[in-house]
């Protein structure tokens, strides 16, 4: 950014969302240099709003959100709201309205992390998931609903334009990383129509990036390698649904859902990008202080990097790495204690 100011829209959302967002904002305040002016505007969206007014994402809110440099979101979803209402009406709506065609999800295993793959070779990959197409566009419907003859379709939408722009983004990402490798993940052997578009577009763009090595995996094989040889991956590009599933697996093998960060990005800058932890609203632990705010804090780092604050992003990631190295599984800390500890490291 030219001027040193950040206009940040904040959607705390439901369940543990507000709890983890509070710590993310605490860390953001601690890392920003004095001369950067931070303006935050909070939005009351999610289950409470829906119960009160029946609204998920009113037009005025969408317009107002658009006037920001970025959005920080906690989580959306509540057991008292019918499944899909908030997920489709708010989360997906935002991703589509702001054309967040890149869903960026880094997967990094810190040396001290506990989990199923603790002690494995260094895992450091990033998944570039397509964010605006595939089976998530709402292109489908049902007939004879609720009868034994019910018919349901959910059509996967893949456009040459949409596939090419996300593949290009992934090649640029790969080019900027030391290993310069890009893996396409799809299911071209069965989903032949969409698969052919993805594979042929990938091959055509690859010809422009001779310095990036490439390979291809079917999504089922990719799940095996995510567990048995995750260190083989550098950058992965894949469609919306495969990326959704793969990145939850990525979170599980790199320290758990409490650490997994993500960005819903519009690389052109035409709309604000939105950063959020991969996890949901975790109603089972909401209000208990057990939520790990680290995923949100790492999402704040992605947000800062996106806005050009590379040094501050790096400082947050270093603080998280240091905090993880000193964690004692026998002495769990509260959401607030973890946030305070991270903020204290950055204030020093
Ligand atoms: P979830 O991610 O909320 O919870 C799954 C499990 O992980 C739970 O046992 C939870 O306690 C644990 N967990 C999640 N975040 C954690 C954290 N920061 N620290 C420690 N443990 C954590 O997924 P679930 O239960 O499938 O969904 C709950 C609600 O969240 C649903 O309404 C769902 O639609 C919504 N959701 C929203 C997302 C979003 O806002 N982007 C993403 C995923 C789910
Ligand atoms: Mg998911």
How would you describe what is shown here?
α6 links the parallel β8 and β9. The protein starts with a strand and ends with a helix. It folds into two domains: 189 residues, Isopropylmalate Dehydrogenase, CATH 3.40.718.10; 140 residues, Isopropylmalate Dehydrogenase (3-Layer(aba) Sandwich). Helix content is 40%, strand content 20%. It has eleven helices and twelve strands. The chain is α/β, with parallel strands linked by helices. A ten-stranded mixed sheet has the order 2-1-3-12-11-4-5-10-8-9, with helices on both faces. The structure holds 1,4-dihydronicotinamide adenine dinucleotide and magnesium ion. The site of magnesium ion has 2 residues, from α8.
CATH topology (fold) name of the largest domain: Isopropylmalate Dehydrogenase
Question: What does the radius of gyration come to?
Answer: 20 Å
- H and E string: EHEHHEHEEEEHEHEHEHEEHHH
Structural class: alpha/beta
Cα-to-Cα separation, first versus last residue: 26 Å
Portion in beta strands: 15-25%
Pick out the low-confidence regions: none
- Kindly report the spatial arrangement of strands forming the biggest sheet: 2-1-3-12-11-4-5-10-8-9
Subunit structure: Homodimer.
Family: Belongs to the isocitrate and isopropylmalate dehydrogenases family. LeuB type 2 subfamily.
Protein name: 3-isopropylmalate dehydrogenase
Site (Important for catalysis): 136, 187
């Amino acid at each position: 950014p030219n001027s040193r100011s950040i206009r940040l829209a904040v959607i705390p959302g439901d369940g543990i969302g507000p709890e983890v967002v509070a710590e993310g904002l605490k860390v953001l305040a601690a890392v920003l240099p004095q001369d950067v002016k931070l303006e935050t505007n909070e939005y009351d969206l999610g289950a409470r709003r829906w119960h009160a007014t029946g609204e998920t994402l009113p037009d005025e809110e969408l317009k107002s959100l658009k006037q920001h440099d970025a959005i920080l979101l906690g989580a959306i979803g509540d057991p008292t709201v019918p499944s899909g209402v908030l997920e489709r009406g708010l989360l997906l709506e935002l991703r589509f309205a702001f054309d967040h065609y890149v869903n960026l999800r880094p997967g990094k295993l810190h040396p001290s992390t506990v989990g199923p793959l603790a002690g494995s070779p260094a895992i450091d990959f990033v998944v570039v998931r397509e964010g605006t197409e595939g089976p998530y566009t709402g292109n489908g419907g049902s007939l004879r609903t609720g009868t034994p003859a019910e018919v349901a379709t959910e059509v996967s939408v893949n456009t040459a334009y949409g596939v090419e722009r996300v593949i290009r983004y992934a090649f640029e990402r790969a080019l900027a990383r030391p290993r310069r490798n890009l893996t396409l993940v799809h299911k071209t052997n069965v989903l032949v129509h969409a698969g052919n578009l993805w594979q042929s577009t990938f091959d055509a763009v690859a010809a422009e990036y001779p310095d990036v090595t490439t390979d291809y995996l079917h999504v089922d094989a990719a799940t095996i390698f995510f567990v048995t040889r995750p260190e083989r991956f550098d950058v992965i590009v894949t469609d919306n649904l495969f990326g959704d599933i793969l990145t939850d697996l990525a979170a599980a093998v790199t320290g758990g859902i409490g650490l997994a960060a993500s960005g819903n990005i519009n690389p052109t800058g035409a709309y604000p990008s939105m950063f959020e932890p991969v996890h949901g609203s975790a109603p089972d632990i909401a209000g208990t202080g057990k939520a790990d705010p680290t995923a949100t804090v790492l999402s704040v780092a992605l947000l800062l990097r996106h806005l050009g604050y590379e040094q501050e992003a790096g400082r947050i990631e270093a603080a998280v790495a240091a905090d993880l190295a000193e964690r004692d599984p026998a002495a769990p800390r509260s959401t607030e204690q973890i946030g305070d500890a991270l903020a204290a490291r950055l204030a020093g």
